[in-house]
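To whoever is on call:

I kicked off a structure prediction for a single chain this morning and the downstream step that reads the tokens threw a length-mismatch warning. I double-checked the sequence; it's 120 residues and nothing unusual in it as far as I can see. Pasting both halves so you can look.
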Amino acid sequence: MPLRRFILLLVFLGPAAAADEFSARATPLLSKYCYECHGAEKQKGGIETHHLTSTDAAFRHHRFLEAIAEQVESGDMPPDDEDVLPTDAERQELVSGIRSILKKLETGDFPRNAGRTTVR
């Protein structure tokens, strides 16, 4: 009986967990290293990261993703004069999470949510 419950739990929760991989992989790193200079109050270089809180949000605000990935991967961001810098593993995790979203955009494998539906 416990195995059956576990399988049912996987069936129902699996897609939800997979659907928000960006928030699990990238959002904590963006919050830790990027929000201070590229957040709601300040957007240095015109780059905003505070909107990138979930996979769905990353799809909606995808125009910043490639620039963020390139800057993080090259080591240009965050700048060396910051007090706390990401490890190489954290950089790779953030870039990987961003590139995953970009790949889904290229292949058309993204949610087709046009916004709120009005019931009439």
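Update from on-call: the warning came from a stale cache, not from the record. Cleared it. Sanity check on the structure: Residues 19-107 form one domain.
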